[in-house]
């Protein structure tokens, strides 16, 4: 299941995915409903403006797994068991609630979603933000693009990212 597909050079969204807290809430509800049905893994595929690609895979993934009321709890993300060639820029966000411009759930004194221009599972503030601004690659601002810091650093906004979840594979590969 594709969770998020950001192809940022589409002319209808020149600065990336539009901010829409209602859409975020609906998407989080759907991810939560799916992730409580079993064990899931997450794969994130990315592409930069030089057409290089990278991926990050997590053998454990879920949203609101241990919440009685995930909306009230802020849809905390569970993620673990990294593999891939992009470097791990998500594990730091493990256990964090989803922050939007109107729901500040991060540990920063500032609202990271407002400061870095996109909703995400921020801590203080981030090592990744796939909902940042579309800044067409190298940029002079700091960490406010579509970022995966372990692969492209803090001043490079990705061209493409896609988050996908599927049932986790058993230890025997099934």
Automatic annotation (TrEMBL):
<dbReference type="GO" id="GO:0005615">
    <property type="term" value="C:extracellular space"/>
</dbReference>
<dbReference type="InterPro" id="IPR002181">
    <property type="entry name" value="Fibrinogen_a/b/g_C_dom"/>
</dbReference>
<keyword id="KW-0106">Calcium</keyword>
<feature type="domain" description="Fibrinogen C-terminal">
    <location>
        <begin position="27"/>
        <end position="169"/>
    </location>
</feature>
<keyword id="KW-1133">Transmembrane helix</keyword>
<keyword id="KW-0812">Transmembrane</keyword>
<keyword id="KW-0472">Membrane</keyword>
<dbReference type="InterPro" id="IPR050373">
    <property type="entry name" value="Fibrinogen_C-term_domain"/>
</dbReference>
<dbReference type="GO" id="GO:0046872">
    <property type="term" value="F:metal ion binding"/>
</dbReference>
<keyword id="KW-0735">Signal-anchor</keyword>
<dbReference type="InterPro" id="IPR036056">
    <property type="entry name" value="Fibrinogen-like_C"/>
</dbReference>
<keyword id="KW-0479">Metal-binding</keyword>
<keyword id="KW-0147">Chitin-binding</keyword>
<dbReference type="InterPro" id="IPR020837">
    <property type="entry name" value="Fibrinogen_CS"/>
</dbReference>
<dbReference type="GO" id="GO:0008061">
    <property type="term" value="F:chitin binding"/>
</dbReference>
<dbReference type="Pfam" id="PF00147">
    <property type="entry name" value="Fibrinogen_C"/>
</dbReference>
<comment type="subunit">
    <text>Homotetramer; disulfide-linked.</text>
</comment>
<keyword id="KW-0325">Glycoprotein</keyword>
<keyword id="KW-1015">Disulfide bond</keyword>
<dbReference type="InterPro" id="IPR014716">
    <property type="entry name" value="Fibrinogen_a/b/g_C_1"/>
</dbReference>
<protein>
    <recommendedName>
        <fullName>Fibrinogen C-terminal domain-containing protein</fullName>
    </recommendedName>
</protein>
<dbReference type="GO" id="GO:0016020">
    <property type="term" value="C:membrane"/>
</dbReference>
């Amino acid at each position: 299941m594709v969770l998020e597909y950001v192809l940022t050079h589409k002319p209808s969204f020149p600065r990336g995915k539009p901010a829409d807290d209602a859409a975020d809430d609906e998407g989080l509800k759907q991810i939560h409903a799916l992730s409580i049905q079993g064990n899931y893994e997450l794969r994130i595929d990315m592409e930069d403006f030089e057409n290089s690609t990278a991926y990050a895979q997590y053998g454990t993934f879920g949203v609101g797994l241990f919440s009685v009321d995930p909306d009230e709890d802020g849809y905390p993300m569970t993620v673990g068991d990294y593999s891939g060639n992009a470097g791990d820029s998500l594990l730091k966000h493990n256990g964090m609630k989803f922050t939007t411009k109107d729901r500040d759930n991060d540990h920063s004194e500032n609202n990271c979603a407002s400061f870095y221009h996109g909703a995400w599972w921020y801590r203080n503030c981030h090592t990744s933000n796939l909902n940042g601004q579309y800044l067409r690659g190298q940029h002079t601002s700091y960490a406010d693009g579509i970022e995966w810091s372990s692969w492209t650093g803090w001043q490079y906004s990705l061209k493409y990212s896609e988050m996908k979840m599927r049932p986790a594979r058993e230890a025997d590969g099934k």
